[in-house]
């Protein structure tokens, strides 16, 4: 049986939640995305009231994606934050490993290439920033890892 290391990305390999920080980055650099804030806020309230689940809420969180130059924004985001990857991860002797995250694929694919992750499991989104399937979080991480 082959041994592998498994790492969560947000708050393990980096000290922040990459999806939330990216949304904030976009609000600062592309302020017109704030037009989506009322819908996201209402979805957040509906989630808190347990009218919708977390995945339904998350489906609204990146609805601003079609309003920005996504590839450019992601590249510039990681240009700014790549140095914050924890040193232990960069220096660790890396045998076979998997990085698992609930953050969006359109955001993590760039840093995965830069750091040469062996394998990345994250939340898939369509070109409009909407989650495809389930958010890769909690038990869903285990389900995706087993696949």
Name the descriptors.
147 residues; mainly alpha; three-stranded parallel sheet; 7 helices; 3 strands; globular
Describe the structure.
By secondary structure, this protein is mainly alpha-helical. 46% of the residues lie in helices and 11% in strands. The chain has seven helices and three strands. It has a three-stranded parallel sheet. Helix 2 (37-48) runs antiparallel to helix 3 (54-61) and helix 4 crosses helix 6 (105-115). The two termini are 16 Å apart. The mean pLDDT is 88.
Q: Would you tell me the overall average pLDDT?
A: 88
The coarse overall form would be globular
The number of distinct β-strands equals: 3
Which runs of at least 5 residues are low in confidence (pLDDT < 50)?
none
* Order of strands across the main sheet: 1-2-3
Strand content: 5-15%
Q: How would a crystallographer describe the biggest sheet?
A: 3 strands, parallel
Order of helices and strands: EHHHHHEHEH
End-to-end Cα distance: 16 Å
Helices, by number, come to 7
Radius of gyration: 16 Å
Helicity level, as a percent range? 40-55%
Briefly say what this structure is.
By secondary structure, the chain is mainly alpha-helical.
Outline the fold blueprint.
Layout (H helix, E strand, L loop, with lengths): L4 E4 L9 H12 L7 H12 L5 H8 L8 H12 L5 H5 L5 E8 H11 L4 E4 L15 H8 L1
Parallel strand pairs: 1-2, 2-3
Helix pairs in contact: 2-3, 4-6
């Amino acid at each position: 049986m082959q041994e592998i290391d498994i790492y969560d990305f947000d708050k393990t390999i980096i000290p922040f939640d990459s999806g939330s920080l990216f949304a904030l980055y976009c609000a600062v650099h592309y302020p017109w995305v704030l037009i989506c804030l009322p819908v996201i806020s209402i979805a957040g309230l509906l989630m808190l009231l347990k009218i919708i689940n977390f995945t339904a809420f998350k489906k609204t969180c990146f609805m601003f994606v079609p309003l920005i130059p996504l590839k450019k924004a992601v590249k510039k985001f990681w240009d700014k934050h790549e140095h914050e990857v924890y040193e232990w991860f960069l220096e660790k002797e890396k045998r076979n490993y998997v990085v698992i995250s609930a953050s969006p694929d359109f955001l993590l694919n760039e840093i995965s290439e830069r750091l040469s992750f062996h394998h990345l499991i994250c939340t898939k989104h369509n070109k409009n920033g909407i989650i495809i399937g389930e958010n890769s979080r909690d038990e869903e991480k285990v389900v995706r890892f087993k696949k």
